[in-house]
Amino acid sequence: MDRSQYSNEKTRADEYDTLTGLPGMNRFFGRAESQRQALIEQGEDPALIYFDLNGMKEFNIRDSMEAVGAGLACDRARLACDQGRDSLTSGYYYFSERLLEEARQKQYIIDHLDQAIEEHWIQVYYQPLIRSANGRVCDEEALARWIDPEKGFLSPADFIPILENTGLIYKLDLYITEQILAKMKLLREKGLFAVPTSINISRSDFAACDVVEEIRKRVDAAGIAHEMITIEITESILGNDLDYMKQQVDRFHALGFQVWMDDYGSGYSSPDILMTIPFDTIKLDMQFIRQYEKNKASGIIISGLIKMAMGLGIETVVEGVETEEQAEFLKEVGCTKLQGYLYCKPIPLGEILRRYDDSPQIGFEDPAELAYFSAIGKVNLYDLSIAVDDEEQQFRDYFDTMPMAIVEVGGEEIALTRCNKSYRSFVGNHYPVSAAKGRAKITDLLTGSAASLVRIVIKCAKDGRQVLTDMKTATSSSPSAMWMRRCGSRRR
Ligand code: C2E
Ligand code: CA
Ligand code: CA
Predict the structure, then answer these.
(1) Distance 49 CA to ligand 2 centre (A)
(2) Rounded to the nearest whole angstrom, what is the distance from the C-alpha of residue 401 to the centroid of ligand 1?
(3) Which of 192, 262, 317, 396 has the most CB atoms lying inside 10 A of its own CB?
(4) Helix (H) or strand (E) holding 88
């Protein structure tokens, strides 16, 4: 090739895209500049419109397969380099078949989303939340599953991040909303009970559409009360734009929807978030409770976060509860709602309906008693912890505090609703076992060793006044101070 031939070829390669044959950047700049001048001379005001087409990289890779050599290699190298897109340091990356498979999977999800929605490959699974004060189902969370005819069962981790990154997740979130509403209508038609259900929404929903309005429209069209729908927003959604998110949360609130903060503590969790945005409930990130048995700091952090939320009038949920020990602890520190495999995994609607018919179910709470259980669930039974100097001792003593209990007095009966570990051992030492747990007839207790204590409890429950009293038990020589107050009344 002589020099002029080489130079012509090079100019053509620079000016036209090798894959599509369309004019390339150099040619574009040349033409754009001459058009700009021409328009200015004609007295016009030129403007530039920029298109960024999603999915071009996958298109290039797929279609380069027909091509050979350098072009394909370059596309693959670019794919490999994408792994370092968010890194500020220089580095090198290798192409592997895995990357190609991921790119194909991503394209599959994007290409099939509409079909997956239309043909109901995407299904809603529901996971119940249990109110700690009464052990009943008080809410449900809707979680998406993609059951693909070709690829089988896909969990959210396989498709949610792809749909979020491409801005398509709003289609899924609005579809999930419609499915929840259809479920509520169905339960209503069958005369069955429905609890408020939460929808997870993503940051890009707000960019793609007016998601507040889109949800409102659908809920109203279904004739469902707004308080039956809860919006879950993850901490990571909030980003740097707290003011914008506050406006959106305010809009949801003004319409009567509950708004919860999800995964609190998973990122940087500045308390600033809670000062700026008035969430109704915060869900503590699963990582805290997961470490409960192994890491002694976990319980203290959970207890502190719950106390902080309580002070702000915000309810708390801990999700990922898997053991009885974790549940017991969370009830004692005043976590209002619990969610996790200990109670139930996320299940499809069909299974919920089957449970109505036969298998054991947890049972739903009576909405009329919500305020009562919400009040008694919030009391932290470790609030009176005593600080000591020795660090090791401090960890041990943190939850080794004053005996505290909540008792329910009603009609003929008195019942122990919640208590902490210190109370259990205190009562075990001083009173007969029958008085220390469960439910008992008041008349039976008025003749036993706890008679005077029971009388004061009944009086406090009746007139609602605080009582500070000295008690002397049969087994101790010195009296103990006892403080009582009414924390709620239950109406049936
Ligand atoms: P998330 O909102 O934090 O949902 C809780 C996740 O924890 C769910 O995972 C649930 O199945 C799982 N989980 C519940 N209890 C336990 C437990 O006791 N132990 C363990 N190990 N896990 C438990 P899933 O369903 O895989 O969802 C993952 C994430 O995907 C969700 O996290 C949520 O961020 C997102 N997601 C799910 N469905 C949707 C949706 O419809 N729209 C949007 N935007 N995001 C969704
Ligand atoms: Ca969630
Ligand atoms: Ca969560």
Answers:
(1) 38
(2) 35
(3) 317
(4) none
Helix (H) / strand (E) element for 255: namely: none
Pairing of strands 337-339, 122-131: antiparallel
Whole-structure pTM value: 0.77
Q: How would residue 389 be classed by pLDDT, with cut points 50, 70 and 90?
A: very low
DSSP string, 127-175: EEEEETTTTEEEEEEEEEEEEETTTEEE-HHHHHHHHHHTT-HHHHHHH
Residues whose CB falls within 8 Å of the CB of residue 139, separated by 6 or more in sequence, listed in order: 128, 129, 195, 196, 197, 198, 230, 337
Which residue's CA lies nearest to atom 42 of ligand 1?
A: 200
Q: Which residues contact 288 (CB under 8 A, 6 or more apart)?
A: 265, 298, 301, 302, 305, 318
Tell me the per-residue pLDDT of 3-59, one tens digit each, with 9 for 90 and over. Answer: 666 566 656 666 777 667 777 777 888 888 888 899 999 998 888 777 666 666 665
CA 260 – CA 196 distance, rounded (Å)? 12
Distance from Cα 331 to the centre of ligand 2, integer Å: 21
Residue extent(s) of CATH 3.20.20.450 domains in the chain: 103-377
CB-CB contact of 284 with 305 (8 Å): yes
Q: Specify the CATH architecture of the domain 103-377.
A: Alpha-Beta Barrel (3.20)
69-111, pLDDT tens digit by residue? 677 778 888 888 888 777 778 888 888 888 889 899 999 999 9
Residue 410's SS3 state is strand
406 in contact with ligand 1, CB cutoff 6 A: no
Find, among 263, 265, 258, the residue nearest to 283 by Cα. 263
Span 430-483, pLDDT tens digits:
665 444 457 788 888 787 777 888 888 888 888 888 888 877 666 666 667 778
Per-residue b or e along 10-46, where b marks 16 or more CB atoms closer than 10 Å to that residue's CB: eeeeebeeeeeeeebeebeeeeeeeeeeeeeeeeeee
Ligand nearest to the CA of 198: 2
Residue nearest to atom 35 of ligand 1 (CA): 156
State how far the Cα of 419 lies from the Cα of 401, in Å rounded to an integer.
12
Residue 266 — very low, low, confident or very high, per pLDDT cuts 50/70/90? confident
The predicted-structure confidence for 160-177, as pLDDT tens digits, reads as follows 999 999 999 999 999 999
Say how many CA atoms lie within 13 Å of 187 toward its Cβ: 21
Ligand 1 close to Cβ of residue 327 (< 6 A): no
Q: Which residue type occupies 229?
A: I
Both tokens of 120, joined, read: 């109901």
Local confidence band at 65 (pLDDT 50, 70, 90 cut-offs): very low
